[in-house]
Amino acid sequence: MFLGGREIVLGVGGGISAYKSCELLRRMQNLGLLVTVIPTRASLNFVGTATWEALSGREVPTDLWNQVHQVPHVSIAKKADAIVIAPATADLIAKVAAGLADDLLTNLLLATTSPVVFVPAMHTEMWLNPATQANVATLRTRGYAIVEPGTGKLTSGDVGVGRYPEVEEILQRLRDALSLNSDLSGRKVLISAGGTREAIDPVRYIGNHSSGKQGYALALAAVKRGADVTLVAANSALPDIEGVNTIHVSSAAEMLAALDASFDEADLLVMAAAIADVRPAVTSAKKIGKAQLHSIELLPNPDITQLLTLRKKKQVIIGFAAQTEESFTDALEIARRKLEEKGLDLIYCNDVSEGAIFGAEQTTGTILDRTGSQIHLSNVEKMTLANNLLDLALDKLG
């Protein structure tokens, strides 16, 4: 299973084996996982904030009361694809079992709906204590994954059960946990992104302001959920996503050819690209002099979305409507007509007046479907919109 790009929280409890989680962090990064470390106050006695920041390349939040306006325990919980607690001390396990939340990490664990993997590590007597065993049993009944501690040398020269498990065992349990979120496994997803360019001459072109960020967010969200993703990207400066088959194109004709080649095998098509409506009737092989550049004869480009929907069999198809009407009600009416006329299953309508949305990290708009229902999203991350659209598409795919 492809893991790259998934967001992981590594919670570090206050045990002597906290240093072993440095290697766990490195191994996670080698798999392409994006890791945010959240240590407990006690754990900082063993491994400091500077070490975690240097290894993760990210800020390490340690206090529930910093950046309060961002509500960190909620925002981090929503972003995380999974949480690993390593080492999980007897104290930390007891707090979580009791539903206590007195620091950032325990608040995060109450706020998350993502898979959680606990990696207990402690002295043998502490691990075998009936209270600890009862608390671990409680965590299991709540659906948390528990990696059994290893047996071997412990602190103080003792030998027994309670040792920090092998890193590979932890990573395998993390893979298992992430697979629970792979609801698009086995699905083929085809996505268009960016903005096409129609050449006037070797220097000039007809184009638009699309950055491709929404299409790339859709591709990342889909591959993280286990899909086989093909992304047809037009003139985007964004880096390729590991695990995604990215086809780079420039013009609408190239976009059509690439989408057409993959459409029949696709389960889901998302047309997030901004495709030029027209192209020059003639493209000059040499730069046209300014004095000769008086007018350009234009021809309509094919409506790629409509051409593909005419061949639709099993596919769910999602379109986008970027509108600039003074009234958003009018924009929604136009989007609704596009939904019907083009045979789409869903359409996302947003207001792009004065360049809004293009190149931005957030988006505002409304999702419409053929039943007439509407879902309005206001200033949400483009990844949030991506997952909303994939959720709705998955429901239609059955």
What strand line-up does the widest sheet have?
12-11-8-13-16-17-18-19
Mean pLDDT figure: 91
Radius of gyration (CA) equals 26 Å
The CATH superfamily of the largest domain bears the name CoaB-like
Number of strands: 19
For the record, the CATH class of the largest domain is Alpha Beta
Number of domains: 2
Q: Structural class, from secondary structure content?
A: alpha/beta
CATH fold call of the largest domain: Rossmann fold
What summary fits the major beta sheet? 8 strands, mixed
Number of helices: 13
Q: How would you characterize this protein structure?
A:
- With 398 residues, this protein is an alpha/beta fold.
- It has 2 domains: 7-179, 3-Layer(aba) Sandwich (Rossmann fold), CATH 3.40.50; 188-397, Rossmann fold.
- 34% of the residues lie in helices and 25% in strands.
- It has 13 helices and 19 strands.
- An 8-stranded mixed β-sheet has the order 12-11-8-13-16-17-18-19, sandwiched between helices.
